[in-house]
Design goal:
The protein is an alpha+beta fold. The protein has one domain: Aminopeptidase (3-Layer(aba) Sandwich). Helix content is 29%, strand content 34%. It is built from 4 helices and 7 strands. A 7-stranded mixed beta sheet has the order 1-2-3-4-5-7-6, sandwiched between helices. It starts with a strand and ends with a strand. The model has no long low-confidence stretch (mean pLDDT 95).
Length: 166
């Protein structure tokens, strides 16, 4: 398994992986499929980006993880401190349970420490049992609930906020 920084050339494979996860439903807050431009802007080279790490094996993308600083213009009661970072993780169904998430996080944590980020937030849908278990296994702790967040179809799902103090 190779773990490395994602580049814009990786976007098509990342789009395919994330769109498969979106199509399955229930494990990501994203509901609208991505295209290459959106992937680059949102995950690979966002303005507040810290890192975007991917894992691959024999040229096959296994997963990727993004870390971005909180937006200083974020308003509202759900806003986070501006020195915190937000993590997002996506692993293909075929690669689950093979250490991909742990390998991605090790690289992401190194990037967070290099930037002296005090806290990483992971906000997970309450119905995403695999995601909740993953962040628990890494040592993230629950600290808040965003109740009844509406999905695109009107369904309301709580979001569990987890944090890791770096």
């Amino acid at each position: 398994m190779i773990v490395r920084t994602a580049t814009p050339q990786d976007a098509p494979k990342m789009v395919a992986l994330l769109n498969d996860i979106i199509a399955l439903g229930g494990s990501t807050a994203h509901q609208t499929p991505f295209n290459t431009a959106r992937m680059v802007d949102h995950y690979i080279t966002p303005a507040l980006g810290v890192s975007c790490i991917l894992s691959e094996e024999d040229g096959e993308l296994l997963g990727f993880q993004s870390l971005v600083m909180c937006d200083p213009n974020w308003q509202g009661e759900d806003a986070l401190p501006t020195d915190w970072a937000i993590i997002a993780t996506f692993v293909s169904d075929q690669a689950r349970g093979k250490g991909v998430g742990r390998a991605l996080f090790d690289a992401t944590l190194t990037a967070a420490k290099a930037r002296k980020i005090p806290t990483i937030d992971a906000t997970i849908r309450a119905d995403n049992e695999l995601g909740l278990a993953y962040y628990n296994a890494l040592g993230f702790k629950d600290y808040a609930i965003l109740p009844a967040v509406s999905l695109a179809d009107g369904t309301k799902v709580d979001r569990i906020r987890k944090r890791m103090d770096v």
